[in-house]
Amino acid sequence: MAKENSSHHHAEAKRKRLLWILCVSGFCILSYVLGAWQNNTVPSSSSAVYSRMGCDETKAQSKSSSSSSSSSSDENLSSSSSSSSSSLDSEPVELDFESHHKIELKITNQTVKHFKPCDMSLSEYTPCEDRERGRRFDRNMMKYRERHCPSKDELLYCLIPPPPNYKIPFKWPQSRDYAWYDNIPHKELSIEKAIQNWIQVEGERFRFPGGGTGFPNGADAYIDELSRLIPLTDGGIRTAIDTGCGVASFGAYLLKRDILAMSFAPRDTHEAQVQFALERGVPAIIGIMGSIRLPYPARAFDIAHCSRCLIPWFQNDGLYLTEVDRVLRPGGYWILSGPPINWKKHWKGWERTQEDLKQEQDSIEDAARRLCWKKIADKGDFAIWQKPINHIECIKRKRVHKSPPICTKSDQSDFAWYKELESCVTPLPEANSPEEFAGGALEDWPDRAFAVPPRIIRGTIPEINAAIFRKDNEVWKERIAYYRQIMPELPRGRFRNIMDMNAYLGGFAAAMVKYPSWVMNVVPVDAEKQTLGVIYERGFIGTYQDWCEGFSTYPRTYDFIHAGGLFSIYENRCDVTLILLEMDRILRPEGTVVFRDNVETLTKIQSITNGMKWTSRILDHEKGPFIPEKILLAVKSYWTGPSS
């Protein structure tokens, strides 16, 4: 009996010890979770954007940068009084990431490589559109003005310097009409195009009155006249491509009509025309109609526009018009003004013979006819053609007009990275009736931004369906709400020109649509899923890009760059340092970058950007500290090159 009592008491004690252990463990877990939640709450004060980055680290980096710069005689660092700089000096707030993750960072001030400024002659350096390098290439079909990127021994490991008196650009919408002369010190266009009102110099700033070679009464009046011929204001037209855009006056004035234009022009004798557009907050990119496809998917644009763009549409058997046909949406419009349109009235002023102009117009008319386009307007200085909504009738006509033939279906119509132009018509998706829009009809804007795109409905993007698309929209709605808390200036117009370096389905751009900004959606050519066509079907613009190469833009043209999961794609393909230096080149002083990736990748990025005059800090994921993906928030310092 005594033995039974002893066994009973022993079991009871064991149960009590186990209960005590469970209680203590539960209390510890609860305390940790509550503490993590409390520390992860994002501050809502107006200075929270960069105050979470911590003043101690900022001061330490400033001292390190100062000691480095004092030994460099060719660098002139300047302080700035803008809101971004003041935010950096705000009262420090404890960073949530480090309180949750006790990792030993191997990055120290002693191991940081500090990058020196490049020579001032490189202040407007565009790596893949360098004119000296371009002269090595054939002039046929403008090949010498296409992308030709530097070889390994030509790569730069230095920081592109801003001009000595660089100023933060005007805010939108004032920026549409004004830019600081010191930021783009080129008066050539104000002299060369003085009569055409491209640009005027007023003291220390430029003014852009909205003129252009083809806009004698200004771009606004030009667009009003155009809207009497095609429906520009009912939401059916959202995306446009402006070939040979000048300073992008056409694109600038389309914006107030909720039309987003991809304006492009080469880097040629008209110095800095694309740079002037981007400086003013107008979407633009360096580009040319040459021997390779434009870097956009098939069926991307609602309208294509050329006003005295100097593209020889009639040459090479209409090859350039065939490329316009590829990127034009079913039912889209091609608008041509300037030579040879209305040549009977203007031929003397154009200093060309009537015979020459008539032959050019006849060649264009014939090329458009062979593409199955229909001419819908020929009034005044405008000629407008419309692409068919499907190829049912066109296939029948091709039995008679066999040139150019329709490309084989195996042709990758969306693929456009260094792919040579082809003298065949890009086939449209099959339609069941003459009234059906090939590939699917689009919603009018603004419903188009969140409607499921036809490419997804038709299942042309592997493993992407309507449910995944809608979930992605919800994810970005939550992310932008979080970004507003860590960057309170986001909805206030501080960031006009924004780039998403890995855009996926365009959810970031869609979540930003209510703010006074625009997004250049970039789909890496190495991305697992090629989704740029989906982005255009949502009413946004973008381009393909290999981030092992330079981007086709001028330095200091973007206010905010988003890079989610990008470096996981490229870490084994090319030098991460070169990608970061390219980001520094295109980012404006005091611009902001958000990286999203795993901790290991972000700490590697941070170790490099610490030597680029950037201030940065790692933050937790918007869903809390238990998510492996983290956020690196970085700000580029204000500094300028030396005065001559």
Automatic annotation (TrEMBL):
Pfam families: Methyltransf_29 (PF03141). Residues 62-90 have a biased composition (Low complexity). GO terms for biological process: methylation. GO terms for molecular function: methyltransferase activity. Keywords: Endoplasmic reticulum, Glycoprotein, Membrane, Methyltransferase, Signal-anchor, Transferase, Transmembrane, Transmembrane helix. GO terms for cellular component: endoplasmic reticulum membrane; endosome; trans-Golgi network. Residues 59-91 are annotated as: Disordered. It is a single-pass type II membrane protein. SUPFAM superfamilies: S-adenosyl-L-methionine-dependent methyltransferases. Its EC number is 2.1.1.-. It is found in: Endoplasmic reticulum membrane; Membrane. InterPro entries: Put_SAM_MeTrfase, SAM-dependent_MTases_sf. Gene3D superfamilies: Vaccinia Virus protein VP39. Its main location: endoplasmic reticulum. Belongs to the methyltransferase superfamily. This is Methyltransferase. It comes from Noccaea caerulescens (Alpine penny-cress).
